[in-house]
Amino acid sequence: MSWHCTGLSWPGEGPADGPVLGWRGGDVRRVSALAYGRELGFRVEGERHCVGARGNPCPLVAVVPVRSTGARCPECARLDRAHSVAADTLADDPRPYRVYLAWFGPGTVKVGITREARGGARLREQGAVVFSWLGRGPLMAARRTEELLRAALGVPDRIPYARKRAVRGGLPGMEERSAEVEGLYRRAVALEGAGWPKALERLPFEAVDHAGIFALTSAGAPVRAVSGLVDGGVVAGRLVAAAGPDLYLETPADGTVVLDTRLITGWQLAAADARAGVSVPLVAVGAGGVQDGLF
Do the Cβ atoms of 279 and 16 come closer than 8 Å? Predict the structure, then answer.
């Protein structure tokens, strides 16, 4: 049976809970937990095909670009964004939402919203090194607060992913990491009398630091990242860290290489010797190379 990777996720909330990779083989689905220090290797086979949308296979079995992080054809991409919070198509969603402030590295902070039931998973998926909740309430109140902070404080709601990857290369200490988030939190709550939605309950500041869960403080700063896969290409090494969708692999010839796991969805993969290294295109960290701005 051939297996296709369905992506990286961060289901656990505890400090010892690491990332897992999802797999699909025919109608069978499974996950494999990833552990730092263990070897990982795979070989790419065939063409990259659309992963479908909302649990449904792509009816066209369309071939998709190797450098796309979405791995969906245009039709499935439109279907996947339907009923999406990001696309503002769920204005009547009755579920509670939370507003958060997320820090990815020095000078790189954003505001965002997520369903309350998701907890901190959304922040780990984005690669937020530190975050704090700001408030909770109905979706539209959370959205208005997000827009208020963007307009009044100049805080973005999106940061290109190449930027996130570049700034996490050399992290300051824990106190300095949380200080920038706390400063933004204090500026945000000062707006409570200037357009802050009444339906949004303010939450106390509490910095949640993911540097340990990601193992970033023990990993060497990567120089290059995988920019796309090719038929017959190999990616192999020892897993030393992970953040958001990124895996940091220590390789024999290329040092620490970053693999954005969104690039491996849609491919058929086979096991490879973890000592084989990397034989796919690489790009300098911070130089972009794949679609950005998705988080």
Answer: no
Structure tokens belonging to residue 224: 């290059």
**What pairs with residue 249 in β-bridges?**
239, 257
What single letter denotes the amino acid at residue 15?
Answer: P
If you write DSSP's letter for every residue of 220-265 in order, what string do you get?
A: PPP-EEE----TT-EEEEEEEEEETTEEEEEETTTEEEEEEGGGTB
53: nearest Cα among 265, 294, 291, 267: 265
| Buried b / exposed e along 46-70 (16+ C-beta atoms within 10 A) | eebbbbbbeeeebeeebebebbbbb
Determine the Cα angle at 114 with ends 7 and 217, to 5°. Answer: 60
Rounded average pLDDT over 164-173: 88
Structural tokens at position 119: 């907890």
pLDDT tens column, 23-45:
887 778 889 999 999 999 999 99
Mean pLDDT for the chain overall: 88
pLDDT one-digit tens code per residue, 243-292: 999 999 999 889 999 999 999 999 999 989 988 899 999 998 866 544 44
Q: Reply yes or no on whether the pLDDT at 185 is more than 90.
A: yes
Q: How far apart are CA 55 and CA 7, in angstroms?
A: 13
